[in-house]
Write a structure and sequence with these properties.
The strands form 2 sheets. The chain has a 3-stranded antiparallel beta sheet with strand order 1-2-5. It is of the alpha+beta class. Strand 1 and strand 2 form a beta hairpin. The chain has one domain.
């Protein structure tokens, strides 16, 4: 009986360790996306941003994404001004390797009026 219990406890610990490892690997891109989302919200809330050319705003977003280690390209950012509002849509994919298995995480942060 003791051997069976030891096997179950060991298996449980291994499963918990594997889940912790997966969580640790996946948390980084999600945290970076959250920071980028906050940045986009701040941009659209700032009235000065609406008066800037869309290309200038796009460049700021690309720089911020790069600083966060996110693979966001110019083609992946849409900046749409309308009257006194601004709409920002972004799209990028993060490839995460977990023990020989690749997961593609698709992110679509957006902010502003529709």
């Amino acid at each position: 009986m003791k051997a069976a219990r030891l096997v179950r406890v060991t298996a449980g610990v291994l499963v918990l360790a594997a889940l912790t490892l997966v969580g640790a690997v996946l948390i980084r891109p999600y945290a970076a996306n959250w920071k980028l989302q906050r940045y986009l919200n701040d941009l659209t809330d700032d009235p000065a941003t609406a008066g800037q050319p869309p290309e200038s705003t796009r460049s700021k977003i690309i720089e911020k994404a790069s600083a966060l280690g996110l693979p966001l390209s110019r083609e992946g950012v849409q900046v749409t001004p309308s009257q006194n509002a601004l709409r920002i849509d972004a799209l990028y994919v993060v490839h995460v390797d977990i023990a020989g298995y690749t997961v593609d995480l698709h992110f679509r942060p957006a902010a502003g009026g529709s």
